[in-house]
Amino acid sequence: MWRNPRTAQTTIACRACGKPLVAERSCRRVILTCPHCRCSYELTEYSDAIDDALEEFMACVPCDRI
User: Fold this and answer.
1) Cβ contacts of residue 57 below 8 Å, gap of 6+?
2) Is the pTM of the predicted complex or chain greater than 0.85?
3) Which of 11, 33, 36, 65 is most exposed, with minimal Cβ within 10 Å?
4) Do 32 and 47 form a contact (C-beta atoms < 8 A)?
5) Beta carbons of 43 and 55 less than 8 angstroms apart
6) How far apart are CA 3 and CA 11, in angstroms?
């Protein structure tokens, strides 16, 4: 059985340090985290900066998109 990835590297810059964020999926939500400064953000904080990697990652996440 195929398993969807739990993380994805993005090109979205962290607002605190400028390094690329990682999208991480838990059972109930997806958050963006910075592996360098350890800041975490809700997706809504970066809705204007979604890149192709995050878009592809979110396509595999079951969620209500209404």
Assistant:
1) 5, 8, 23, 25, 30
2) no
3) 65
4) no
5) no
6) 23
